[in-house]
Design brief:
Layout (H helix, E strand, L loop, with lengths): L2 E2 L12 E5 L4 H13 L4 E4 L10 H4 L9 E4 L2 E4 L1 H11 L10 H16 L1 H12 L2 H4 L3 H10 L3 H11 L6 H22 L12 H15 L8 H11 L2 H8 L11
Parallel strand pairs: 2-3
Antiparallel strand pairs: 1-5, 2-4, 4-5
Helix pairs in contact: 1-3, 1-10, 1-12, 4-10, 5-8, 5-9, 7-8, 9-11
């Protein structure tokens, strides 16, 4: 989704860049990394999604389906991490993170679309199926409220299943793992011939994918079969933006100086 009209009038008065985000959300990582790469000052509105701080009428008035991140810029709201990082790059073009050249632009768009396509079916499913349900599943009270607030049928079905007796199964985990390896096999093949995912420098495509890799490694997925992805991820891990935007926030709480 692009820019949306806020239902919460209080955000209309926010000046500057305000990010509603969660520490270990890979979508939040993308936006934080983009902000850090560009050296932009931003105000943190950290939500602990493990304790349901995003499942409130107030937050759903900011983000219509209750996801993180949401960016407020001078009272305007942007949602969907893919749209947010493109907006930031267009609004603050130095240093440029969008690739240059028709072929590279199309390649970046294809990688970013693939990441979106596997978000629930593969990434969320794998992470939720490998973590203790009491850490990620919603309580009965949270689920009841979530059902009242949520209008997205895919998310509603997913979280209902993760939070009730049905649960995710070993087959769900296996199927998600297969989808992930299929996707990362595409990256690995491409990275066998290219240093970055679109062009000669790090771009929004790389910023979109590296949080997925990091999050999935933490969840136990092995990347031995994707050596080019591993080399690419190690290169990105040396960037200050990765440390500040991904590693420092991953335990789910603000960093000491955040």
């Amino acid at each position: 989704m692009p820019k949306i009209e806020p239902k919460d009038d209080s955000v209309r008065g926010l000046k500057g860049l305000h990010l509603y985000h969660a520490g270990w959300s890979n979508c939040s990582m993308r936006v934080r990394m983009t902000l850090e790469e560009k050296g932009l000052p931003w105000v943190s509105h950290h939500l602990n999604i493990r304790t349901g701080e995003h499942i409130t009428p107030e937050y759903f008035a900011i983000h219509p389906i209750g996801l993180v991140p949401a960016l407020v810029h001078d009272g305007d709201i942007w949602i969907d991490s893919k749209d947010i990082i493109r907006y930031l790059d267009d609004t603050y073009p130095e240093p440029r993170l969008a690739p240059v050249g028709e072929t590279q632009i199309a390649q970046a768009a294809a990688w970013m679309d693939l990441a979106s396509a596997i978000h629930v079916s593969a990434v969320k499913t794998y992470v939720y199926s490998t973590k203790p349900i009491e850490k990620l599943g919603k309580t009965a009270a949270e689920l009841e409220l979530y059902r009242k607030l949520q209008t997205n049928e895919e998310l509603l079905a997913f979280h209902t299943r993760c939070s009730t007796g049905a649960r995710l199964t070993e087959k769900d985990q296996h199927d998600a793992e297969c989808l992930l390896h299929e996707a990362f096999a595409q990256l690995d093949t491409y990275l066998g011939e290219h240093r970055w995912l679109a062009g000669d420098e790090l771009t929004l495509a790389d910023i979109t994918w590296v949080p997925l890799h990091y999050t999935l490694v933490q969840a136990g997925l092995h990347f031995d079969r994707h050596p080019n992805v591993e080399s690419w991820a190690r290169r990105i891990a040396t960037r200050p933006s990765f440390q500040k935007a991904v590693v420092d926030w991953f335990d789910g709480s603000p960093p000491a100086d955040g």
